[in-house]
Amino acid sequence: MTETAQDILESRKWRYATKKYDVNKKVSNEDLDAILEAIRLSASSYGLQPYHILVVSDAEVREKLRPASWGQSQITDSSHLIVFASQSDFEGKLVDDYLKNLSDTRSIPLESLQGYGDFAKSKLLDLPQDTKANWTAKQSYIALGNALQAVAELNIDSTPMEGIEPEKYDEILGLKETGFTTTVVLAIGYRAEEDDTQHLAKVRKSKEELFTFI
């Protein structure tokens, strides 16, 4: 195994869902920018990125969010709280905006992208609203996966959290009128020394049980 491959695996063995954070240690702006860039560069279906990311560091806002998070201390004690909000519904503008960005970024005539845009719209726009919401939520989880990898490689601790009340999050964060809804939350920071969870063995399925080679 190459040194790079070993490093990649070691960072993943090192990370765990942190239960207690050191409130006195903060993630640097440089590292935070790298984590957010990893999220921005994440893959997404059709390249559409149907989500928005909120980075919450304001103490008062986080105190309001904690009761909507089953009282979990990671909400207030971590360095930053990253909220992934997916589009609960969308129309053709989602595709049109992407095509405009693609045209500008790669200097491609917009009209030459029409076929791709029509194809994407034909697959997405007629879906039921609940199917659209499920699809956009899945895209935000892909972005979450990229964030988890980035923080591990930076030796920054993290806690992905679904134990929240999305509707209350939407209200507190002003999302109700935006077309986005809270999907999942990621707390990041540095583990407290007294967090005994860090010393526990990682529990995963064996390779034989998890993988099938065809």
From TrEMBL:
<keyword id="KW-0288">FMN</keyword>
<protein>
    <submittedName>
        <fullName>NAD(P)H-dependent oxidoreductase</fullName>
    </submittedName>
</protein>
<feature type="domain" description="Nitroreductase">
    <location>
        <begin position="13"/>
        <end position="190"/>
    </location>
</feature>
<dbReference type="Pfam" id="PF00881">
    <property type="entry name" value="Nitroreductase"/>
</dbReference>
<dbReference type="InterPro" id="IPR000415">
    <property type="entry name" value="Nitroreductase-like"/>
</dbReference>
<dbReference type="InterPro" id="IPR033878">
    <property type="entry name" value="NfsB-like"/>
</dbReference>
<dbReference type="InterPro" id="IPR029479">
    <property type="entry name" value="Nitroreductase"/>
</dbReference>
<keyword id="KW-0521">NADP</keyword>
<comment type="similarity">
    <text>Belongs to the nitroreductase family.</text>
</comment>
<keyword id="KW-0560">Oxidoreductase</keyword>
<keyword id="KW-0285">Flavoprotein</keyword>
